[in-house]
Amino acid sequence: MFSIIIPIYNKFPHLDRSINSVLNQKFGEWELILVDDGSSDGSFEKAKSYTDKRIRVFQRKQPGPGGYAARNLGIAKAKYDWVAFLDADDEWMDHHLITFLELINYQPEAKILSTSWTDNFEENKEGRFFPNTYNKRHHSKGIHEIDLKKFLKNSIDGAPPFWTGAVGFRTELLKEIGGFPEGRCKRGGDVDTWLRAIFYGELAIWSPELTVVYHRDSVNMVTKVEGFELGCESTTVQKLASLTIDDQVSSLLYKFLNARVVSRWLQTLRVGKNPDSLWGKVKWKHLTKKGLVITFWSILPSSVTKQLYRLISKGKYD
Known about the structure:
The protein is of the alpha/beta class. It has helices spanning 15-23, 43-48, 68-77, 96-106, 133-138, 148-156, 171-176, 189-201, 222-225, 233-243, 247-270, 289-297, 302-313; strands spanning 2-8, 30-36, 55-59, 82-85, 91-92, 112-123, 126-131, 144-146, 167-170, 204-215.
């Protein structure tokens, strides 16, 4: 039923948590594909130590940015009709796959599934837990469909409905869209993949069930170690905008791209780096009011923008 892919790169302290969360699923028809991406901390040896026959372990010798190549290898090895993803430092609740099954039964034609997740900001081993923003705004609607426009509008408004550990895809859809953008970028490849999937797959089914924990303060996170870059989405948005005949979709695509660039700039600032200004990196015509303000902020000294961000975010991640 489900092929689950976990890419691993130097995540030894977290592997028991993530892998056990799969082993503890109430629904048992799955395979777990562990793809080590050239770890040097014993993660590969740890991955091979699990004895469940549903687990297969592969190794890439050369690390690939973002785990995109590792996920693509997992997709190529998948034997089931559905693929689900989990990062090596996050975890599923035991009803995650059962919730996926409920969504498939609710809408058999869907090619994309999504549950909800909880953000865990760990401080001194005491977590601060927040349901994701889309869930907070839309959980009262229950299970519902998400199309391209709804995905774009909510993402622009700071409430993306999808995240890596909470989504599942028809295997054939991932193969049709070319999988993850390995070799094209270090960051943003997940969202780039969701965008292409919803554009071509057309329909997703979403559940308000909180079935995943996103651990924001894990070791060796890409969002902490990589600097600012525009990401993969720029090329993808231009291509999709050229394919659509819907002017509203075209406008939403560019607003989405701006929102992604601004969000990534804030995230880079938050982790202590000093990104260059957003001047020339965004399309003015498609900036939201928030994006416009932050773009002007970005020309100020980093020390000033960091202080402004702390005041507005009140310590919570963007």
